[in-house]
Amino acid sequence: MNGRHAVLVGLCGRSGAGKGYVASLFSLFGIPSVDTDAVYRTLTAPSQSLSPCMKALRDRFGDGIVCPDNSLNRPALRALVFGGDGTALNDLNAISHRFILLETERIADALAERGADVVLIDAPVLYESGFDKKCARVVCVTAPEDVSIRRITERDGLSPADAKRRLDAQMSNEELRARADYAVENDGSPAIFDRVARCAAELLKLRKGAGGKG
Q1: Which of 27, 62, 109, 149 is most buried, most CB within 10 Å of its CB?
Q2: Phi and psi at residue 182, in whole multiples of 5°?
Q3: In the chain, pLDDT over 70 holds for what percent of residues?
Q4: pTM for the whole structure
Q5: Which residues on neighbouring strands pair with residue 8, listed in sequence order?
Q6: Is the Cβ–Cβ distance between 182 and 137 less than 8 Å?
Q7: Residues 109-141: pLDDT tens digits?
Q8: Would you list the domain boundaries of the chain?
Q9: DSSP helix/strand/coil, 184
Q10: Counting runs of H as helices and runs of E as strands, what totals does the chain give?
C-alpha cells in the first residue's frame, strides 16, 4: 500500500502481564493495536481454499497438518514440531512470522488510512520474531511475578508451579525493560490508566518517517 502509513510501535510483555488490557487502554487515546496472535489464527482459519500461509506450511510439513476445512491441524503440527531437534520449530517460525508480518503491516496501513498516526504491534515474541526491527519504538508491559502467576492460573487453569515455569522460560521483566523504550507497569492498580496516558502522549509525538530500529 502506497498511501498513508502509521508509526509502528511494538508492544511486548511476559505471559500474565496483561498486554491485551493495556492495548485496550491505548485505544482510548487514539492508538489502535494489531494482535499478531489473532492475525496468525486468521491466516490459518477455515477457508474455501488454502491461504498462502497454509500452503507454505503444507509444503514444509505435509498434508497431515491441513484439516478438511483447510484450517491448521494444530495437534498434528505440534507433534511434528516439538518432537525433533529444533529444525522444524525454526522452520515453522520462519514461515509463520513472514506471513504474520505481511498481514500485520497490511492491517496497520489500513488503520493509518482511517486516521491512525501510531499503531501498536502486540507481539508476544516481538524480539524473537524480529518484528521489533519494523518498529520505531517498543513498549513493554510488566507486572510483578505473583500478579502474573495469579493471572495465568485464573486464565489458563495452570497450577502456580506450571505458571512459574512458563514465566521462567520467557525473557525477564528486567531484560524487557532494558531493551524497550517505554515500560508500563500493569500491577492491577487504578494507576495503570495514568501510566498509559503518559506513554500514549509520548507515542503520539512521534512522526511518520521515524523509521525502524534495525
Answers
A1: 149
A2: -135, 150
A3: 95
A4: 0.88
A5: 119
A6: yes
A7: 999 999 999 999 999 889 888 899 999 999 999
A8: 1-32+117-214, 38-115
A9: strand
A10: 10, 5
